[in-house]
């Protein structure tokens, strides 16, 4: 009986705490008001999130988009981590893997299995490429959660976005993936491989805009939520984290799957070859 009362009292305390939090949020909203929280109107904010007309960053005297700085930072972090793992972790690998070794080997095995399944003829290079591209997209998407800021050319702080939310980075990833598929077909099947890849001339466009559209949609929704004060109590954290995690997982899987499939078609030798 006493245990039941104790359990009931805990539930009561939990409910009271949550009701108190809700009341405080409502009171804060009432005090601050329902006007937009930024100095710019929402149209200007969302337009700049797409076109980057105002928030430029000075990079060695050049005015560049924040996404370029994000791409350099993410690439540098991944290269440093890869170097540290190669020097300190890989030499200690054992036949029976420990926890760290299992964690490090899982993504390698995942992308290698994907490459072997979709492109069984030449899976080694395909696995290495989709592993690299997948890590860049995944961690590049999660990078915006860090909220790292830089100063724009006007002296105002700018939060560095996910690299692929910039159309230039999305095009770079799409075109690079297409060139990898094209040259794989050339080296494996010669001119026939090149012609088979050239038939899918819309592939780099579709991959680029699929990445850009998905990442940009999450960015715009987050900007919309953050812009209005009455939505900025707790909700942006949930929306931002959920959108970012979902986009990181989905876009990484979609792009690596597409690349491995088209790579497999390019290097597969037909009977007439």
How is the secondary structure organized here?
Blueprint: H1 2-32, H2 42-51, E1 57-59, E2 62-64, H3 66-89, H4 99-118, H5 123-142, E3 149-151, E4 157-159, H6 167-189, H7 191-198, H8 203-227, H9 235-267
Helix pairs in contact: 2-8, 3-5, 4-5, 4-9, 5-9, 6-7, 6-8, 6-9, 7-9, 8-9
Low-confidence stretches: 1-8, 32-38
User: Which class do the helix and strand fractions yield?
Assistant: mainly alpha
What is the straight-line distance between the termini?
A: 81 Å
**Main pleated sheet:** 2 strands, antiparallel
Mean pLDDT: 78
What is the helix fraction of residues, given as a range? over 70%
* Shape field: globular
Strand content: under 5%
Tell how many strands the DSSP assignment holds: 4
Describe this structure in words.
It is a single chain. It is globular, with a radius of gyration of 24 Å. It folds into 2 domains: 1-32; 38-267, no CATH class. The relative contact order is 0.13. The protein is built from 9 helices and 4 strands. The longest helix is centred in the C-terminal third of the chain and has 33 residues, at 235-267. By secondary structure, it is mostly helical.
């Amino acid at each position: 009986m006493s245990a039941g009362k104790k359990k009931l009292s805990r539930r009561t305390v939990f409910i009271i705490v949550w009701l108190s939090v809700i009341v405080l949020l409502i009171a804060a909203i009432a005090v601050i008001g329902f006007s937009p929280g930024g100095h710019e109107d929402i149209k200007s904010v969302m337009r700049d999130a797409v076109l980057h007309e105002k928030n430029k960053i000075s990079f060695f005297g050049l005015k560049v988009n924040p996404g370029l700085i994000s791409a350099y930072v993410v690439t540098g972090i991944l290269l440093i981590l890869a170097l540290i793992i190669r020097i300190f972790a890989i030499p200690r690998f054992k036949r029976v893997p420990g926890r760290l070794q299992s964690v490090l080997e899982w993504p390698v095995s995942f992308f290698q299995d994907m490459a072997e399944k979709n492109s069984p003829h030449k899976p080694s290079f395909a696995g290495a490429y989709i592993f690299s591209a997948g890590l860049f997209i995944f961690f590049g998407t999660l990078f915006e959660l860090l909220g790292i800021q830089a100063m724009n050319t006007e002296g105002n702080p700018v939060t560095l976005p996910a690299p692929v939310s910039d159309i230039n980075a999305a095009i770079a990833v799409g075109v690079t993936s297409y060139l990898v598929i094209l040259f794989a077909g050339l080296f494996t099947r010669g001119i026939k491989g090149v012609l088979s890849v050239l038939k899918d001339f819309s592939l780099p466009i579709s991959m680029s805009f699929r990445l850009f559209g998905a990442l940009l949609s999450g960015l715009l929704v987050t900007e919309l939520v953050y812009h209005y004060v009455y939505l900025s109590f707790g909700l942006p954290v949930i929306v931002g984290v959920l959108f970012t995690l979902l986009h990181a997982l989905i876009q990484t899987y979609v792009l690596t799957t597409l690349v491995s499939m088209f790579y497999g078609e390019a290097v597969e030798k037909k009977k007439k070859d």
